[in-house]
Design a protein that fits this description.
By secondary structure, the chain is an alpha+beta fold. The protein has 14 helices and 22 strands. The radius of gyration is 21 Å and the shape is globular.
């Protein structure tokens, strides 16, 4: 096992990794930007090294500075968390060249599965259901038109690299496809340094499901079943739950086992998430693979009893997964709300500034993953998420009831947060009855 691990991240995920390290007897080391100099999580690290100014491109995205921090603190490994450099294959390769273990997949596995086109090809080989669409990147608009005519409009243009809704355009006719192809290519190049795009059939009404998988360096891969991430706005997830409601268990098991086969075929070690859209006929279609720990990993931890972050560290250290597929059992239901420092009444404007009041909820089955507290000043430089509130219960109804009460108890001020929005969403018949699709939150916000 590692003696010292550097955490190349910030906020709640840095604190989450610190906790896992402590349980494993590992000394956690943090890096931080000047904007995070007073970050509450830093006091829980054994050492903390400043790596640059507030903007991420001058600190958390600087591979050279992170490697320097790792070398001067004499760490054995680096955990990238999520975001920033977590899905950067070059960073993983630099870590390997410097003889520092990257807590995640090999650069080769990350590159293969992180590229949506390559991942789709491998998925077809192992029997995962994929969307009809182009077999590779598209450069010629006429080639795109030919594919679109074959599969039928509407279609969606997608970036081969990256995520978060960037480099994506929905096209309902040939003219919008021509415009969308070029604008998506430009956006993808600017955001990810890779302008490759492809097209797939677009589902008007779909649910967003994902399969959590863990792999080790000994060829083993085990799935931890699915999460439902349908509640989202502009491709950004708001509420996640496990297990997914109203899913055929036999079909779910078939897809989950195929997802584990995909990770195994890629010789992948660490945590990975295989994402899908499910159509109205309950058929799955693979979207992409996320080659890192997910924001929403706590709901899976609560229903399976598996500590995903600790297992990532263990398999990076060369250990085998301590359980087989037959050992994984689902118990109860968990739902997570992302608490963002945003004002939903002002088009979700980010809310930087000082938190004066922070009263956390409690009670049976309540988990809060957050770095925020009274007196913490939210910097304007990073993602607006300041915490994740998760409720666990014996069934979905009890989990919803516990989450509603926890949201009532949760007090944060004077900064605005998404807590009131979550309170309203959890009362809607669409959510309560799991009668929703990926656009229902946006329809709700429009009053439809």
């Amino acid at each position: 096992m590692f003696g010292r691990v550097l955490i190349a991240n910030r906020g709640e995920i840095a604190l989450r990794i610190i906790r896992a390290c402590r349980e494993l007897g590992i000394e956690p080391i943090c890096v931080f930007s000047e904007a995070d100099r007073d970050g509450p999580w830093l006091k829980h690290a054994d050492e903390a090294v400043c790596i640059g100014p507030g903007p991420a491109k001058e600190s958390y995205l600087r591979i050279d500075r992170i490697i320097s921090a790792a070398e001067i603190t004499n760490v054995d490994a680096i955990h990238p968390g999520y975001g920033f450099l977590s899905e950067n294959a070059h960073f993983a390769e630099v870590c390997r060249d410097c003889q520092i273990e990257f807590i995640g997949p090999s650069p080769e596995a990350m590159a293969q599965l992180g590229d949506k086109i390559a991942a789709k090809r491998l998925a077809k080989q192992v029997g995962l259901p994929t969307f009809p669409g182009s077999d590779g990147a598209l450069e010629d608009p006429e080639e795109a038109m030919k594919v679109a005519r074959e599969i039928g409009f509407p279609v969606i243009v997608k970036a081969a690299a990256g995520g978060g809704g960037r480099g994506m355009r929905i096209a309902r006719n040939e003219e919008s496809l021509r415009l969308g192809l070029e604008s998506a290519r430009q956006e993808a190049a600017a955001a990810f340094g890779n302008g490759a795009v492809y097209i797939e059939k677009f589902l008007e009404k779909a649910r967003h499901l994902e399969i959590q998988v863990l792999g080790d360096k000994h060829g083993n891969a085990v799935h931890l079943y699915e999460r439902d991430c349908t509640s989202q706005r502009r491709h950004q997830k708001l509420i996640e739950e496990a297990p997914a409601p109203n899913i055929d268990p036999a079909k779910r098991d078939q897809v989950a086992n195929a997802a584990a086969s995909l990770i195994r075929a890629a010789k992948y070690s660490g945590a990975a998430t295989v994402e899908f859209l499910m159509d109205r006929g309950a058929d799955f279609h693979m979207l992409e693979v996320n080659t890192r720990v997910q924001v929403e990993h706590p709901v899976t931890e609560l229903v399976t009893g598996v500590d995903i972050v600790k297992e990532m560290i263990r398999v990076a250290a060369g250990e085998k997964l301590p359980f087989k597929q037959s050992d994984v059992r689902l118990k109860g239901h968990a739902i997570e709300c992302r608490i963002n420092a945003e004002d939903p009444d002002r088009n979700f404007m980010p809310q930087a500034g000082r938190i004066e009041t922070f009263a956390a909820p409690g009670g049976p089955g309540i988990r809060l993953d957050s770095h925020a507290r009274s007196g913490y000043r939210i910097p304007p430089n990073y993602d607006s998420m300041i915490g994740k509130l998760i409720a666990f219960g014996p069934d979905r109804t009890s989990a919803i009831a516990r989450l509603r009460q926890a949201l009532r108890e949760f007090e944060i001020g004077p900064v605005k947060t998404t807590i009131p929005l979550h309170q309203r969403l959890l009362e809607t018949a669409h959510f309560v009855n799991a009668d929703f699709d990926i656009h229902y939150v946006e329809r709700f916000l429009k009053g439809e």
